[in-house]
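Here's what a typical entry looks like (Protein phosphatase 2C domain-containing protein):
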Amino acid sequence: MRIEIVDRLNDPGKPGGHSEDRAGANEHSAFVIDGATGIADRQVMTDFPSDAAWLADRAAAAFSRAGSPESVADIVSRLNAEARAAYLAAAGTGDLPRYMWPAAAFQMLRIEGDRLVSYGLGDCRLFLQSEVNGRVFETTALKGNRTREIAAARAHLARTGGFGGKNDIGGDEKTRAALRESRSKHNMPGGRIFTLGLVPEAADAIVREETGIAAPARGLLSSDGFAALSDNYDAFSPSGLIDAAFDEGLPVLLKRLREIERIEDPEGERFPRYKVSDDATCLAFRIF
C-alpha cells in the first residue's frame, strides 16, 4: 500500500494571523498536528510565531522523517523529551506554570503491513472511507471532548455576552483562568487529556486503533477547527464531508466553514465555541 496526498489546506483562524496547525506525510504515514493556542503571559520561543507553532514544527519534522520500523510511541516520547529540554533551556528555568507549556494534538494514519492503523493524542480527526464498499471509519483520540467543550463555551459566552467583535473569549479574565486551570491538568497521571509537548510519558496514552479498512481507500486528516463542519456545525455527515472534499475540493469546504463562523454565527449563538474561527487544516489522501 502507499499514500498519495490529493489536496491540503492550512488556514489561520484569525484573518492575517498565523496558523499553529501542521500536516504532512511520508511513504508509510500521513498526519495532522494542531498546536494549542497559548494562554501564557509571555512567549519563550521568540524566533517563532508562537510556542505552539515551534512545537508543531518540531512534531511535523519528527513525524516526516520517522522510519516505519519505529513505533509511534517511541517517536512521541523522544519528541517530547527533546522539546522539554529545548524549551526549558530557552526559558532559563524549569519553574514554569504548566499552563505555559506548549502542547499540540495529533492524528496519524499509518500503513503497517496490510493494515491501516490510526494513532492520536488530543482532538484531531480522521475520516477514512473504503472505495470498495463505502464503509467509513472515523475517530479522534479524545472521544467525547467536543460535547464538553461546546457546553463550556456556551457557559462562557452566556456570561460574556458573545464575542463582541473579538476573535476569541480567551481574553476574558474568568475564562482565561478556567482555561489555565484546565491546561495545567494536561499530561498528568490519571488525567483525561494527553498531548504532544513537554511530557515524554504522554506517549503511553497514545490511542491506537485498527481501522479495519483496506486499500483502495480515501480520507481526510484534519484539525478540530476543520472537522467542526461535521462535528459542531452539522453541515456534513462524516461520509458527506469526505464526498464533498473529493468532489468539490477543500477550498470550497473552507469557504463554507468561514461563512458559518463569520457571517451566519459570528457571536457563537447557534454554535458555541471559544473562537469565532479556529485554525483549519485538512489533508485529503488516497491509499492504493
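Strands lie at 3-11, 21-25, 29-35, 104-112, 115-121, 125-130, 136-139, 207-210, 217-222, 280-287.

More examples are in the samples folder.
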